[in-house]
UniProtKB/TrEMBL annotation:
<keyword id="KW-0519">Myristate</keyword>
<dbReference type="InterPro" id="IPR050710">
    <property type="entry name" value="Band7/mec-2_domain"/>
</dbReference>
<dbReference type="InterPro" id="IPR001107">
    <property type="entry name" value="Band_7"/>
</dbReference>
<dbReference type="InterPro" id="IPR036013">
    <property type="entry name" value="Band_7/SPFH_dom_sf"/>
</dbReference>
<keyword id="KW-0449">Lipoprotein</keyword>
<dbReference type="GO" id="GO:0005886">
    <property type="term" value="C:plasma membrane"/>
</dbReference>
<feature type="domain" description="Band 7">
    <location>
        <begin position="5"/>
        <end position="165"/>
    </location>
</feature>
<protein>
    <submittedName>
        <fullName>Hypersensitive-induced response protein 1 isoform X1</fullName>
    </submittedName>
</protein>
<dbReference type="Pfam" id="PF01145">
    <property type="entry name" value="Band_7"/>
</dbReference>
Length: 285
């Protein structure tokens, strides 16, 4: 109906290409325009100025001979001041962009190892964007943003990478576990050494106390009972300790200590053995 009245409407974020007798005449901005068809004017087509997105999947090989699929997302738009170039110079905009993306990715990724591809994906995106910006600007298009949204190695390669990562983590865990066990053993040995040291101090103090007590007993008994010798006092102390020990054994319900021989006459033999041992030690020293 608009053509009958020589009027045409151009929507927002869109421009129209006006031709006169088949030749480019003007770029019509959004709004209502008069298009006298009887004077040879006609509408060649519309061109969107909105940002468009094109996802390109490119298969290539890395420097370490691993095939990967690199997915690049290209965001682009036509320039209003170059609408005629964008409309006339390219017949297949998406195909042209895809060809440039393939060219840049297949020239960049083969120079990198697989790990470097993941680490330097921003550099790859920047290389693609620079090449596209230089090429597409002559056709009236602006590259808004280029993103490398995915890098997909072969499934077997991904499984191998996961296994390598898992093995490395297991190795670290085993090292940490061994280190923890080492620390526990060291702490346990230090505790045992400290315990034995303190037990030795206790035994030494106990024996010192026994010796001091016996000495005081011998001296006191010799002073209070005239005519007694140190030998008589020691014999009496040994007999007393013997009967104290026998009483404790009898009082215990589950005693497992056995004295052989256990007769009272054996006390004198024990005292004789102690004296002989002391005399031998004195003669050696």
């Amino acid at each position: 109906m608009g053509n009958l009245f020589c009027c045409v409407q151009v929507d927002q974020s869109t421009v129209a290409i006006k031709e006169t007798f088949g030749k480019f005449d003007d770029v019509l901005q959004p709004g209502c325009h008069c298009l006298p068809w009887f004077l040879g004017s006609q509408l060649a087509g519309h061109l969107s100025l909105r940002v468009q997105q094109l996802d390109v999947r490119c298969e290539t090989k890395t420097k370490d001979n691993v095939f990967v699929n690199v997915v690049a997302s290209i965001q682009y738009r036509a320039l209003a001041n170059q609408a005629s170039d964008a409309f006339y110079k390219l017949s297949n905009t998406k195909g042209q962009i895809q060809a440039y993306v393939f060219d840049v990715i297949r020239a960049t990724v083969p120079r990198l190892d697989l790990d470097d591809v993941f680490e330097q994906k921003n550099d790859i995106a920047k290389a693609v964007e620079d090449e596209l910006e230089k090429a597409m600007s002559t056709y009236g298009y602006e590259i808004v943003q280029t993103l490398i949204v995915d890098i997909e190695p072969d499934e077997h390669v991904k499984r191998a990478m996961n296994e390598i990562n898992a093995a490395a983590r297991l190795r670290v865990a085993a090292t940490e576990k061994a280190e923890a066990e080492k620390i526990l053993q060291i702490k346990r040995a230090e505790g045992e050494a400290e315990s034995k040291y303190l037990a030795g101090l206790g035994i030494a103090r106990q024996r010192q106390a026994i010796v001091d007590g016996l000495r005081d007993s011998v001296l006191g008994f010799s002073e209070n009972v005239p005519g007694t010798t140190a030998k008589d006092v020691m014999d009496m102390v040994l007999v007393t300790q013997y009967f104290d020990t026998m009483r404790e054994i009898g009082a215990a319900s589950k005693a497992s200590t056995v004295f052989i021989p256990h007769g009272p006459g054996a006390v004198r033999d024990v005292a004789s053995q102690i004296r002989e041992g002391l005399l031998q030690a004195s003669s050696v020293s």
